[in-house]
Amino acid sequence: MILVTGxxxxxxxxxxxxxTVAHNxxxxxxxxxAARILPVTFDxxxxxxxxxxxxxxxxxxxxLGLDASAAELHVERVAINLADARVPDNDxxxxxxxxxxxxxxxxxxxxxxxxxxxxxxxxxxxxRLSYSAGTYVCNATLYAALHAAxxxxxxxxxxxxxxxxxxxxxxxxxxxxxxxxxxx
Length: 184
Hints:
Radius of gyration: 15 Å
Distance between the termini: 8 Å
CATH architecture: 3-Layer(aba) Sandwich
């Protein structure tokens, strides 16, 4: 089983393509993929992700999120132990310069094969490797997955551009190919 997560709307983004793409991937691979939609909150997203890890015991986790300024899909390589929000999350929290896990390491590298993932996506639509998942809820989610997942569970994160840049159908096709190459 592969857990694919997405997020609901947040800030000025009335639509979050990660939610639709996560559901689309679960529909494409009903025996292999379970989708969960996480809240765009620093407390809720990691907590719900940890709950899904315990409940589903996936062999891999691929989290998806929206980068409203992106021009292509970004495969994230690193999650850092930092919450530093430019805008409040959906609960109104706006942490500044706080560790996500006071007892955790400064950073984790994604454990899904990021270059293979990016290459598979790029066969369908433009994609690139990125060296930081930022300091918002997307980063907190990747950090939580890597911090809490049992040994051997591979985890990664892909930022999607707005659907006006890369349509949801194209992002779904690209990520379906990436799952086939790296995780299924």
